Amino acid sequence: MAELQEVQITEEKPLLPGQTPEAAKEAELAARILLDQGQTHSVETPYGSVTFTVYGTPKPKRPAIFTYHDVGLNYKSCFQPLFQFGDMQEIIQNFVRVHVDAPGMEEGAPVFPLGYQYPSLDQLADMIPCILQYLNFSTIIGVGVGAGAYILSRYALTHPDTVEGLVLINIDPNAKGWMDWAAHKLTGLTSSIPEMILGHLFSQEELSGNSELIQKYRNIITHAPNLENIELYWNSYNNRRDLNFERGGEITLKCPVMLVVGDQAPHEDAVVECNSKLDPTQTSFLKMADSGGQPQLTQPGKLTEAFKYFLQGMGYMASSCMTRLSRSRTASLTSAASIDGNRSRSRTLSQSSESGTLPSGPPGHTMEVSC
């Protein structure tokens, strides 16, 4: 009789006691669905509770992508078209994401009681360490729009060691001056809060055109059950302090920054001015044609490609394939001096309707790219 040999069989994913293979598969499927849907958390901070949703799992030695939305929106209405875009999937597979909802902006949020003191934008920025401590995340790449871009910038000024990079869409780093304040008050006499917020989000050309996108967001904001909360966030934005950026000064963003604005967008001048105040060796300026006031909604493909290049410049996703901008026909690199002739301007990426590459060049150059 042949000698019996002992054979050891090790399960790659051991089953729990009493668990059948079918049950294990169902549990694994449920876990994947949960990751796809995101896990929502709330934490208490010195300025109230804040809600955020986490997608994916942390990757070793990689920061989290950390988003903050604009006034009148929440994380879904602000970022979902961008992060659900096909080419973006390569990015989100490589990073865990944290999408923050400003207090009272999350879906199903109750209306704050009368007299509630809504946090200032500075205080909203001071909530971020509580989120990162709760998640045990050490560094982030911030992606913010409008008020969210301001909040992430304020956080980066006070916690520079925890911010590896920033993508700032429609940022206005300046406090409202007396003329802005007076114009805002006069507008408030003739326009409703939803109309003022729509004027903040979209260009007048877009609002006049009344496209399907505009109709959708006008309906979202006008019929929002938490409109009183939205007004509080709106007031905090309009009462923001000046970030006091100064090129070559002490107050500046120390990490790589990509500034983004649409051609003819409401905040085009503010973003151009912000670009002039930041370190040109660390800053890229992306001005997107045909994108209106919300590039992440209207041109998610172009913004995704630019984001991939930005991440590559930071040393991530070196083998990533460029699907749009890489099939280029034209690329030019020109050096432009600043007004005083001694300092170079920051890198400027200008997109049009055709595809083009982003050439690599020395810092302090202006990149003019047809894409």
From TrEMBL:
GO BP terms: cell differentiation; negative regulation of cytokine production; negative regulation of ERK1 and ERK2 cascade; negative regulation of vascular associated smooth muscle cell proliferation; nervous system development; regulation of platelet-derived growth factor production; regulation of vascular endothelial growth factor production; vascular associated smooth muscle cell proliferation
Role: Contributes to the regulation of the Wnt signaling pathway. Down-regulates CTNNB1-mediated transcriptional activation of target genes, such as CCND1, and may thereby act as tumor suppressor. May be involved in dendritic cell and neuron differentiation. Contributes to the regulation of the Wnt signaling pathway. Down-regulates CTNNB1-mediated transcriptional activation of target genes. May be involved in neuron differentiation.
Entry keywords, A to Z: Cytoplasm, Developmental protein, Differentiation, Neurogenesis, Wnt signaling pathway
Source organism of this protein record: Sciurus vulgaris
Name listed for the protein in its UniProt record: Protein NDRG2
Gene that produces this protein: NDRG2
Cytoplasm listed as a keyword: yes
Top-level lineage group: Eukaryota
Lineage, uppermost ranks: Eukaryota, Metazoa, Chordata, Craniata, Vertebrata
Entry keyword Nucleotide-binding: no
